[in-house]
Design goal:
Helices cover 49% and strands 12% of the residues. By secondary structure, the chain is of the alpha/beta class.
Length: 296
Amino acid sequence: MRKRIQIAFFCAMICLFALTTAFAADIPVAEDMSVKIYDNADIIESAEEEAQLQETAQALAEKWQLDIVILTTTTTAGMSAEEYGAAFYDDNGFGYGENADGILLVVDMSSRVGKFVTTGKGVDIFTDYYMNEIWEEMRNYMKVGNYFGAMQSFLTDVDHYCEEYEAYLADPNYVTEYQQAMQQQAAQPEVEQSDVLLLYAIFSAMLAIMVAVIGLVVMRRGYVQIKPATDGTLYLEENSLQLHQKEDRYLTSTYTKVPIQKDDDNHMGHGGGFGGGTTVFRGGSGRSHGVGGGSF
């Protein structure tokens, strides 16, 4: 019995190793760490454009001590785009310093998604808010097939937000784009609420007038004009006695509207500091990465 358990455990380990090796075999190998552009999906139209992107990415990586890598692919080996990007980044040893600081853009043409994978200092710089800003600009290019323009936009925004991050660290009074946006968002509901209250008051007044007019019309039509009779014989019938039933009929009714309490689903939490919170996940290597991006 013990021998069978050992054999089963050994077989399970072999299967796990084979599965891991199969996934690892599908991860491209970066032989030269100075290369920053890996266009495996062949979506960059010319060698000149790829060389330009390579030069810019390498210069920015050295400037900010933050690795900047672009990977395109037509397969993710059964993984999500961000998991595939994280495996490529970690397995090939990208990143600056002991925390492997950097940001990777992975474009999966099979599912038409683009994902940012951040590491180390990159997680602090490229928060959810800033990654969304970068992606919204990139997506306009991606939708029309201008992938070179999208990658140029990506590199430009990376440079911009790295510069803003350094300014934020150097000056405690520096107001970031995120903080400005949050201040504007906080002020906006007050204006909107006053407008809504004004419109509600006008609508309520108009509705009350309409209801009053309709009520008067209905009540006027409901009442019957009674003319006095001059001859009492109209009310008498010879050799008969009749009993009449009296019935009260109300012409109007009163309705009371009871408000129904609704749950408030409009409250969302945000982190503070430079750019709010960052969505993170753990890659196959066990390292934590930030993630952003979307579909095109």
